[in-house]
Amino acid sequence: MFANYLKLAWRNIWKSKGTFAINVIGLAVAVCVALLLSVTAYFQFSFNNFHKELGSLYQIYHEENEVNGPNAKSNLPVPLQDEMKREFPEVLMSTRYIGGGASYRYGTTTGSMGIRFVDPDFLDMFTFPIISGSKRPLDQPGNIVFSDKAALKWLGSADVVGKQVSIKFGDKWDNFTIAAVVQAAPANSDLDFGALMRFEHLPAYEQHKSIWDHYNTEMFVKLSDKATIAGFEKHSQSIVNKYYQDNVARIKRDGGKPNADGYLKKFSLIPVRDMHFISISASGGDVKKALPYMLIVIAAFVLFIACINFINLSVARAFGRAKEVGMRKMMGAVRFQLVLQLWGEALMICLVALIVGGIITYLVIPSYSAWLHTSVNMAMIFRPEMLLGIIAAFLVMTIVAGVYPALVMTRIDTVQALKGSVKPGRKQPVRNSLIVVQFAFSSLLICCTLVALQQISYLRSKPLGYNKQQVISLPLAGGDIHRGQLINLLRDRLSGEPGILSFSAADNNLGLGLDRSSMTSSVTFDYKEREINTNLLTVDYDYTQTIGIQLVAGRDFDRRLASDSTAIVINEEMAKRLGGNNVLNQFIKFDDEGDQHQVIGIMKNYHFQSLAKKIDAITLRLDPTRVDYAYGYIKVSPNDLPASLGRVEKVWSQIQPGVEFKGSFLDENVDRMYNEEKRTSQLLVAGAIVTIIISCMGLFAMAILSIAQRTKEIGIRKVLGSSISAIVVLLYRDFLKLVVIAIFIAVPLAWYGMGAWLNSFAYNVGLQWWVFAVAGLCAVIVALVTVSVQSIRAALANPVKSLRSE
């Protein structure tokens, strides 16, 4: 019986090759898109899941309930680690975590390397398997650990355990023993490293090891099984009461209100399993959790739209098979047998589509991964969780696409079927509803795509308050030269090069450079009985001139004035917090320092952070030791920018032979900050295009079948004097009405969803009515173009041929 069903199914499929091709192509493309989007979502959800102790690992953050609302950050004071290990029995292990760069020398090889400064528990807490070497390699202060990839890249071999490497911090070289080589962090890890060293080797550690008001490191803990986040927060009040009484008093004085638990300041926890999606976390938080969910929704809708095509085409063809169904009923076939046979046809088509879609996915996934700069690959699709999801989706797809048409066909009256008098109704509410759903989702994606593209364009083009087109940022890590000497050499050599206008340096980058490094440093202090928080940036002379930041009051740092070594330049937001422009020439004192700092200049506000954040207070100060500068900034002439970059690279290679050049223009750095938003817009564009194509394929096929059913009606209308244009409008009208309904459904949903997305940016383009009007017009045009060919052909046809069979 089943063999007979398969044979009949194949014959029926072969009879309608055109419909079969449309179904298979539509479903195969939908399967491919769904697989690509699903594996991308799976990759995002898999971040940090490989750690064996994941359920007990947390990142600590601190939160202050200020007058403007809660202010939460994951930057913590250095001494918090030792205090918690002493006073918190629920903390089984803990580690601080901060990045930095240094020069290294190994045999005859020299260069620059990235280092993560951590505590000895780091490798016991997190699952980065040790390939060779000691089980607790960081117990000894003089040890260093390399990942296998970093060892190959920097040292030329992963067989380096027990050997010595020289590391330079500032102008001093120290020797370290390579105690272990560990497996490099996988692509789905928020914590990455090339080399690990004890936290005590962090430059400025001695300066900050007992200061509680300087927040510059992240911290992770492993808690006991009985510990809870609420319990940890309550226990952390002992630290707040011990070290932050003045801080809490200032928050209360300035109008801060306690949270629901009565805390003005607290230390709390982020589960490491959620860190990837939590914006508070400096290590994670670069992806909004809505993104993978959005990908899953798009994947589901793309599959659903392809199934709608299948359903509509199957139902439309059902009336052409009425005699076959009636004959089978007369011969004794029960309804279950008919449903099983007709569903079997759908199963065969879906299986072919799944195979073809899988082949397409295999062919395009490398290009897709490179396009989105992600690490998805075909192997992920064969993981148990993904395979179960694919099987479940396949079964749902075959049921949705096959069972309803089968039920429709088996409901046909046997007598009418055998007489050949079964015809589709004109209204067909199910078919029309499905077409509305198709174009509603297509219109929704068009709206979202236009808004996302607008926002990305806005982020790239918005004036940031500094010159991003003509300024090169250059990471200074690497080589044997003292940082201050390197800066002087670069300034001297570049000053004689054509097109080089000025040079300066700072301890942090603007945007995200080729070294992928970014950090923030902030300080909280009391000023005139008010608590003030500001970002700190250590700069060299000529910084504001080189970057192109305008001064609105006062002056810049001056080499000729020795007193400027302790002077500061602040932005307008910082001046506002201090009391306005009258703060010029006033003195302030940071709580962790003994020096008084005179405000000598006020800068115009500029966006030193992402446009997702409002402009914060920032304070510029000099570094008398000239060792903290991590980046050089070179302003070049706007004429022939690539040539200027080449000149800078040439000078660098002369000064630092063998050290990689990682200079890039600031506009490139700014673009890198918005990779997530760019990926979102690219996925929306791709999803919109695929959805529209699949919808158009279905609409085209439905237009053919619908017009074929109205051939005689069109012939009669032409004989009675209807014009070609009137007939075309008549045929357009039914489909156009459905598309307009779809647009009215899609626009409110897009307005709400994209409004929420835009609100995640402190600066955004806002929602504009014309975007949704354009999206609706696009949907209408696409629908009209899709049905126009068949409509015009039907209107031009000779009515004699269509009426001859009457």
TrEMBL record:
The chain crosses the membrane at residues 20-43, 293-320, 340-365, 386-407, 434-453, 683-708, 739-758, 770-796. This is ABC transporter permease. InterPro entries: ABC3_permease_C (IPR003838), MacB_PCD (IPR025857), Macrolide_Exporter_MacB (IPR050250). PANTHER family: ABC-TYPE MACROLIDE FAMILY EXPORT SYSTEM PERMEASE COMPONENT 2 (PTHR30572:SF18), MEMBRANE COMPONENT OF TRANSPORTER-RELATED (PTHR30572). It is a multi-pass membrane protein. Keywords: Cell membrane, Membrane, Transmembrane, Transmembrane helix. Residues 296-412, 688-796 form the ABC3 transporter permease C-terminal domain. It comes from Chitinophaga horti. Residues 21-233, 522-607 form the MacB-like periplasmic core domain.
